[in-house]
Amino acid sequence: MISVERDERVAVLRLAHGKVNALDLELLRAITSAMAELRAEDGVDAVVLTGSGRAFSAGVDLRRVLDGGPAYVRQYLPALTEAILAVFDWPRPVVAAINGHAIAGGCVFAAACDLRLMSQGTIGVTELLVGVPFPAAALEVFRHAAGIAGSELVLSGRTVDPATARAAGLLHAVVEPERLLPEAVSRARQLAAIPRAAYEITKRQLHRPAAELIATGRRLDDPAVEDHWCRPEIIAGIGAYLDRITARRPS
User: Fold this and answer.
1) Residue range 28-57: average pLDDT?
2) TM segments (predicted)?
């Protein structure tokens, strides 16, 4: 589900869960646990988050949502928030090595990292195309990373190639596939060379506007977001969306 490798004092956390690293409840809890364990290790100065196969992560495992219904959703959405914040709030450098498609929640996890390098695939947040709103943490972390392009990408649900994402400011670099992981580890090591206390304080300062919006949104918006996801017509709409996606795939 998740592997953790060490490159000297850089930990490479690799998602390895099914064909496209879809985010189900178990994977979210594994991400949260892994980031907490790495945070407690004195020998880890930075983390590189990457995927396996052809995807970084294709986002929420909608089949599990469809099968589990409201009971699953009410466990899932809080776990999604905790996993996003486990990455976003990790005090030391976190670099995303986006090896393939980073869609919806997968894009949000990339956005939660300090630097984002991508080699191939498409990236974007497609939640509104499915008919579901964003939990506060997902929306504000993406907005923090995407800047001026964020609102349009959120509202349109469009996905873009790495060059377009780089031009929009969502990515910091586009890297050839064979160079992606070495470059991400090198960038992580460069950031880790900055004095730790100064880095941690500055990262907290940079994140404060998003953190305050997340705290407010979790209180004011997330209960309504959760109720929306649980509505029978929304779950039925998720099923219809999956049927459309399946129908478009080559046989």
Assistant:
1) 96
2) none
Q: Which amino acid makes up residue 182?
A: P
Nearest to 50 by CA among 176, 168, 180: 180
Q: At a CB cut-off of 8 Å and minimum separation 6, what does 30 contact? A: 1, 2
> What is the Cα–Cα distance from 31 to 164, expressed in whole angstroms?
28
Q: pLDDT averaged over the chain?
A: 96
Tell me which amino acid residue 171 is: L
| Domain, as residue range, for 92 | 2-180
Counting Cα atoms < 13 Å in the Cβ hemisphere of 155 gives: 5
Q: How far, in Å, are 40, 169, 196, 210 from residue 144 at the CA level? A: 26, 11, 22, 6
β-bridge pairing 115-118 and 173-174: parallel
Q: Give the CATH number for residue 145.
A: 3.90.226.10
pTM (2 decimals)?
0.96
